[in-house]
Amino acid sequence: MKTRRGHSTGSYFLAFFLLTAFVITSSMLLFLNYFARSAGVAFTRENLFTAAVVTFGNAVFLAVLCTLVDILRRKVMVGRPVRAIVEAARKITAGDFSARISPKAAVGASEGFDEIIDCFNTMAAELAGVETLRTDFIANVSHELKTPLAVMQNYGTMLQSPDLTEEQRLAYAKAVTDASRRLADLITNILKLNRLENQQIYPAAKRYDLGEQLAECLLNFEDTWEKKDIALETDIEEELTVESDAELLSLVWNNLFSNALKFTEPGGTVSVSLKTEGDRAVVKVSDTGCGMTPEVKKHIFEKFYQGDASHATQGNGLGLALVRRVLDIVGGDIAVTSEPGQGSTFTVKIRRAADGDMQKNP
To answer: Is a pLDDT exceeding 80 seen at residue 267?
Structure first.
């Protein structure tokens, strides 16, 4: 196909240049004829034929010369960049995301190609980053799936022993149930995070009382704080409304409350406050748990990152990644302050609803 296309292009050029030479020759003959009449000079047929041949030959020569110069120019200024782009694109297609194209610094280089090359290199860098994240994500998921599956397999095998006491049987069955619940939670969070990251969930904003939502979410953890004898302190401003997606924000509060209660030792304190700061609603969730080092704080919003290995069996490292993604979608902010041994405070800021009548959730 390349050969046919080349022949076709060459035929077009040849026809174009021959037509151009014919037009120039005809114009020259018309000029000579007009000049002869005006000056009273008589040209013989031989003179006109010679002039026509010379004019046509010169036109063809100049056309061929310009064509050769243009072919050389295209090979240098167009052919080379195109070949470099095609070669790099083939490497990307084959999975080599390290492929890059060097900018063309030649004199008279096309700025258009330089822009294409810059965009291509940016795309390749983004694809390389995405591929790294995908590989890490798959590795982390595989690791997280293996742990509960191994627990279920081991305790399931032990349950088959005929010499088990009733107490052992119940303990092993509970271990299998806990591992299966953890596996189900992991898969649910992975699916939620995947939908959020691919923006398959869009905010369904409606106006509602944020304080009521916080109270409802807290009540879901009543058994947890009572079992651990944790003191719960609340300072929630009344009738503070926001206009956002209530279902998405419930993911934020449930994950923050769950983490605060998980990392607070029995007898500790968890505090929840809701205040107005300008046009923002500010929610603070504090605990008296183990706290975090500066290094841990840098990574807590990354997928599968768990700073405290002692609580690894109580979570899967996706909660705060979900929180960050939800707040990015609804236009909120989150910050954390923490010191080792002194607990942590997560601060979430969301834009308040404009003044007016509130439409509460049904």
So the answer is: yes
